[in-house]
Amino acid sequence: MPQPRILKITEIFPSVQGEGLRQGEPTIFIRLSGCNLKCDFCDTQYAWKGGKEYSTDQILEEVKKIYRNFPSQWVCLTGGEPLVQDISGLVKELKKQDYKIQVETNATHYIPLPVDWYSVSPKPDDYAFQPEYREKAKEVKIVIIKNLNFEQVRRLRNEFPETIPILLQPQSNRKWSMELGSKLLRQALKNGLKNIRISLQLHKVYGMK
Ligand code: SF4
User: Fold this and answer.
1) What is the pLDDT of residues 50-106, one digit of tens each?
2) Sequence-distant (≥ 6) Cβ neighbours of residue 181 within 8 angstroms
3) For labelling alongside 48, which of 106, 107, 121, 146 has CA 20 to 30 A away?
4) In a domain, 56, yes or no
């Protein structure tokens, strides 16, 4: 008999999507453990290590339990970096149950999966990403860290099609980060960069997870 695939999970919880274009939408989050990067500004460092082992069936059971009181059609696979584990079985099973699936990724890994919404956030220093995301990304989020500069924003804008929005996202909603974001947005406008906007982490404003 085949062994069930085991995934390491940090937490499964209901909330609203606080980031990106899906901002404000009720969503069930599955936070997978582990990340291949170690960004010093990471606000989910608690997901870098450990995690509880779940089979796909156990995850689906948890999601179903949450759904009873929080009937959200969207499930977001986040981390850590969700794609450092093999989530293909989980995605397939969630699709069978008619959930819409978002994956939040640092874009260093790509595997073809029936995902409805890739939220892509390349990270410094090199902001590298797998080329498939040029077509697959629904949005590109750039965290506004202290040394983010206009050339990095311009480079990412040039590397993704103009139809894919770029969101400048303040680091943990800090004031200095928002100020830098406004400055970068003005520079982007003056230099003719298209489809760039500023954003914030809405769940933190609402005091949600
Ligand atoms: S890629 Fe994301 S989860 Fe990984 S360390 Fe960086 S900010 Fe944290």
Assistant:
1) 999 999 999 999 999 999 999 999 999 999 999 999 999 999 999 999 999 999 999
2) 144, 168, 169, 170, 198
3) 146
4) yes
